[in-house]
Amino acid sequence: MSIFAHAREFSLIQSCFGVLNWDQETHLPPDAAAYRATQLAWLASRAHELATSNTWKNALESAESSNPGDNPIHTANLRELRRSFNRAALLPTELVVRESSANSLAKHAWADARKHSHFPTFAPHLETLLALAREKTELWGYPNEPYDALLEGYEHGISTANVANLFNAIRPELREIAARAVETSAARAPQLPPGPYPTATQQSLNRQIAESIGFDFHAGRIDTTNHPFCTTLGPRDVRLTTRFNEADFTSSLFGVLHECGHGIYEQGLPLTDFGLPSGTSASLGIHESQSRLMENHVGRSRSFWNRWYPVAQQLFPQLAGFSLDHFMDYVWRSSFSPIRVEADESTYDLHILLRFDLERRMLNGTLAVADVPDAWNDGFHELFGFFPENDQVGCLQDIHWSMGGLGYFATYTLGNINAAQLFAAARENPTVASAIDQANYAPLLAWLRLSVHTHGATLSPSDLIQQATGKPPSTQAYLSHLKSRIL
Amino acid sequence: MSIFAHAREFSLIQSCFGVLNWDQETHLPPDAAAYRATQLAWLASRAHELATSNTWKNALESAESSNPGDNPIHTANLRELRRSFNRAALLPTELVVRESSANSLAKHAWADARKHSHFPTFAPHLETLLALAREKTELWGYPNEPYDALLEGYEHGISTANVANLFNAIRPELREIAARAVETSAARAPQLPPGPYPTATQQSLNRQIAESIGFDFHAGRIDTTNHPFCTTLGPRDVRLTTRFNEADFTSSLFGVLHECGHGIYEQGLPLTDFGLPSGTSASLGIHESQSRLMENHVGRSRSFWNRWYPVAQQLFPQLAGFSLDHFMDYVWRSSFSPIRVEADESTYDLHILLRFDLERRMLNGTLAVADVPDAWNDGFHELFGFFPENDQVGCLQDIHWSMGGLGYFATYTLGNINAAQLFAAARENPTVASAIDQANYAPLLAWLRLSVHTHGATLSPSDLIQQATGKPPSTQAYLSHLKSRIL
User: Fold this and answer.
1) What number is the ipTM of this complex?
2) Distance from A47 to chain B by nearest Cα, in Å?
3) DSSP 8-state code for residue A463
4) From the list B22, B31, B234, which residue is nearest A32 (CB)?
5) Which part of chain A is CATH 1.10.1370.30?
6) Domain B117-189+226-236+258-487 falls under CATH 1.10.1370.30
């Protein structure tokens, strides 16, 4: 079997894992959780065994030695498969299974700890997951610090020092923007007319909007969960989830726009290359750029609501006497929240800076797990000027660590930066810009398909940005965008 | 690894298949169907490879040779694993994959053929599936006729000739019962007050009733599909589906009672033996006995409705002035329908007799696929006294053949017979009988757990019936039951 056939089989196993995981998040009866963890661990270990097998290694070597080098996509596929193999082969299957079990246990403990705002319930699990992460970074090796080895798995080609420099460079400006945004928003005290905004009506509006920006419901769907996410179960079979707040229809809508950005990217990857690097997303930072672009640059724009606000007014009678100007004040409102997922655009990245700093120190061994709550609270106070009320809305708020996702958070801010740079570049095309102003997103989608989606993972994230925008990655467009938001 | 560890892994792969299949039937977007078929075929071939591997064979032989023989369940497990292995090992994996693909294609073609009542659309697929079935029966071998080899897979220990003799013996009486039931029912012309019976209210009633007869919603769930079914995705993780008719709430309710019978059986199998024969259902004919028992002996009884009709009247105001007597006339109504799944108790088995006869002739080569529609219509006319209007309500009505399920139908009537015999035996216990009369099914459930569920597949179907009822399998209780239904 060729290495590409192997890669497709690997991806097929992962996609089966995806189906069982999606069912777990959306439909699994509580008493079925334990066996589901066993099923998922089995699939994970089959995938890992395959991707680290001698058959795989030999097929890869054979393809490499016979590569004529005249097809850049073929060459990129081999390069990326080699990178994945080298990384995977360093981890014993035993560790992968151990990690899968540790994650299952940690997820339950974290949910319990958060519910009761009791960090000690989660602490031993975080110890285990941190030890596992360190074990992996030692097996992988790293140029400067352990965090490098984790970041490489999410965002190839950028070092921890790069990210730290970037974050330090924008930190003062981000704090200033946030402070001004919160202040001007507070002066206007924006409010939405009271609910209920019925769930069924929200669903109908969400679906219309999702279709209008390009999500394909013939191949994908949207379901309801407590923790919104997006997952791909096969070529273009993309499952989004959302949750509803009957007091505020924009909460679910912006969530759907966000997940649709992820989903439209997945649906736009080269179809026949499913399972190959050329049919796979480039990185988490590029993935997040697609979701933030749809959520913030499309969904929070005045032109978007010029089109959709009258539709919302038809569906929700309480909006009848509420002007678009007041509604936009609400959409652009800003305030300091202790919770990342409730943060607005202007304050969001401060949450990421905090997490990046803590994770890095944990991995370097300069922050003990027991000291995480204090370090969190101090770091939060420094950035936001107040302390979180408790650990539930502090260091226990996010699911990521409990899933073993150390090193993940940084990609959210990278995604914000990429989104702004890509959106600005797209708008340089006059057809795209004029259609966007009419809330017609077909040309924007075509531009994204051409400049981002069609490349799969054949370009590194920074090369992709360079090629799509004509410039190296830069925070300029993002900072301008944030400033434009201040009321 | 021990043979039991292998068996559990096999079952785990099958359960992953089950999750993907359940998602296919309940949630899959249309454009995702092709890749899903690929995923399912991959899982099917992994399971088959494992169950026919040398590792499996050696582990089985080693367990057999070291079996001290002092534990009847252990011995039964080895006996059943040997039977499965001998059967599976005769089929090459290539054939299993070919069959999986043929089924996927045939299912689509059948749906299309049925929709347009156009048998030629389905005929070439039926040819392929029949050829595959024959290929398998030749690989397996059979004592007298090919149908034997298929039946053995569904209902171990009964020959085609046994079934034919049984069916021929009850055929005249079944026809007479059906004719009388239809005639007396027609005289009463029972009707249900007009709908709508809102779906959400039906769901609430269904759930109350499902819980009251013993379905465990902590481990299982009920969803909505066009083709109701029951599947097990892990220990006690049983997923039922139903469909709703807002003109008749009893349609979904009896469907749920039926699927609950299957589901309660699955949930009652020995939990820690999941994946072993002792944790697996005994046969299709025993499985169907559990669904028919709940649907017909419990759900269509007067005592059941003594309890639940007042609840239904509360939920559906149009029932307020409609007496329980009239409602029972409706529940017990009988008529000749061309459609099996719409048939009532008194006419149901005639549909099975027809299919059994045709399948047997197809497998023996005395009925060509092209002649199936005519043979169907003639056979139907002989049993029912009229011709189906077209193939849509004739030979194209059932999904079974398109799934490769030749030899399956006979087990429905075996299930009906078993259900009556088991229910009569359970009622011989005074605690069970008196509770049933009060619509309290906990003692009945305990009796079924003890007499049927707890044995898994360690007894042959006929031994299980003998042990549970103290008598060999017999049609006596079933014929009495059917006669008691005539108004």
Assistant:
1) 0.90
2) 13
3) H
4) B234
5) 118-487
6) yes
